[in-house]
């Protein structure tokens, strides 16, 4: 089993975060930050910048590394294994597209995000990922087939 490599980018302004309401799988109907799979041989930072531009129309000027998150989901067709590189940005150029083929974009107050429908792992690491005063971290989450947490580890980097 090879991991799938991906990025997530949290754009932050005035205590708000930019999230996408997913219009297709994975995470259909859930709120997620812009991001996506890395292309073969692509650097995670370059992939994050590319995904942000493709999904939002924005070009980040100050991409900050926040975390490496490993997610193992024990689903019926066999384990699903993701390694995600999380970044945050507070400065960017470009015009935000409100809609993309991936879903609808919206700014949310950071304090309201825990009440939204989020992927199970995202719900666990969101607060730490957007806390720019906290050190970067590594996390590993393992879920059963019903997406109930089996184990979790979080360590500062």
From TrEMBL:
One of its GO terms (cellular component) is cytoplasm. Residues 2-131 form the Nudix hydrolase domain. Keywords: Hydrolase, Magnesium, Metal-binding. GO terms for molecular function: hydrolase activity, acting on acid anhydrides, in phosphorus-containing anhydrides; metal ion binding. InterPro entries: Nudix_hydrolase, NUDIX_hydrolase-like_dom_sf, NUDIX_hydrolase_CS, NUDIX_hydrolase_dom. It holds the Pfam family NUDIX. Its cofactor is Mg(2+). Belongs to the Nudix hydrolase family. This is NUDIX hydrolase.
